[in-house]
Write a structure and sequence with these properties.
The chain is of the alpha+beta class. It has 2 domains: about 80 residues, OB fold (Dihydrolipoamide Acetyltransferase, E2P), CATH 2.40.50; about 170 residues, Recombination protein O, C-terminal domain (de novo design (two linked rop proteins), Up-down Bundle). The chain has a 5-stranded mixed barrel with strand order 1-2-3-5-4. Strands 7-6-8 form a 3-stranded antiparallel beta sheet. Strand 6 and strand 7 form a beta hairpin. The longest helix is centred in the last third of the chain and has 19 residues. The protein is elongated, with a radius of gyration of 20 Å.
């Protein structure tokens, strides 16, 4: 079997057989891959740590018939600042599930950009304090942009006019924010305050370091959570499993 190296993040893992795991990896070089790590559930296995979620690892992979085969693994980063914080760990798990859901197997077209974006989000998540969802929503918006599904936030998704006024609409089906007139013409449009729209615009475009200083009002933050959830559910055609737990944490003071 021909072998190659790839740097990747573990998005999902599934126990199989008595001692093996099937891993979903997102690699910088090849995009999303499925690989089997044989024997990693045996006590004392040297590469078992490399199979944990959102671990960055340098893999030596062999090309198999249906799955790649992990031959060697060297951990690069484990993100301890995330693993020791339940709120951050729940968000990192969601980012991994979102990336898995929105990307296709073996699509390397944007893999370097998406990989670097994901890695940056994990590093920022370790450092965030008062508003960790700034990293989450910025990642959502920039991942959607990378795969060609960015919501319209500057101009009305229907008529193209600049968005103005105290309240606009948000329609996943039409593709984003709607002006005050057009929001009544979309069956799935929900009201969105101008403060929430401005926050979405900031999250989509501001420098990564600036995300750490954002502190929106709770009501505005809640509007953004709902708008992004509606939009991503429409694009992915289902709710993500990790969102249930994340929503519970968001409701906990």
């Amino acid at each position: 079997m021909p072998s190659y190296t790839a740097t990747g993040l573990v998005l999902h893992r599934l126990n199989t057989g008595e001692t093996d795991k099937i891993l979903t990896l997102y690699t910088r070089e090849q995009g999303k891959l499925s690989a089997i790590a044989k024997g990693v559930r045996k006590a004392g296995n040297r590469i078992s740590g490399a199979t944990e979620l959102f671990t960055e690892t340098r893999f030596l992979l062999a090309t198999g018939k249906s799955l790649e085969v992990v031959q060697q693994a060297e951990i690069q980063q484990t993100f301890p600042g995330i693993r020791l914080d339940l709120d951050k760990m729940a968000r990192a798990t969601y980012l991994c599930e979102l990336l898995d859901r929105l990307t296709a197997e073996s699509d390397a077209l944007q893999s370097a950009e998406i990989y670097d974006l994901t890695l940056s989000a994990l590093y920022l998540l370790q450092r965030t304090d008062s508003y960790p969802d700034a990293v989450v929503h910025a990642y959502e918006l920039r991942l959607l942009a990378a795969i060609g599904y960015a919501p319209a936030l500057e101009n009305c998704a229907r008529c193209g006019e600049p968005l103005q006024g105290r309240q606009v609409g948000f329609s996943p089906a039409i593709g984003g924010a709607l002006c005050n007139a057009d929001r009544y013409r979309a069956d799935d449009a929900h009201p969105l305050s101008f403060d929430a729209l401005k926050l979405l615009q900031t999250l989509a475009s501001t420098e990564p370091e600036q995300l750490l200083s954002l502190q929106p009002a709770p009501r505005t933050a809640g509007e953004v959570v709902r708008a992004m959830r509606w939009y991503i559910r429409y694009r992915s055609d289902r709710d993500l499993k990790s969102l249930t737990f994340l929503d519970t944490l968001r409701m906990t003071p």
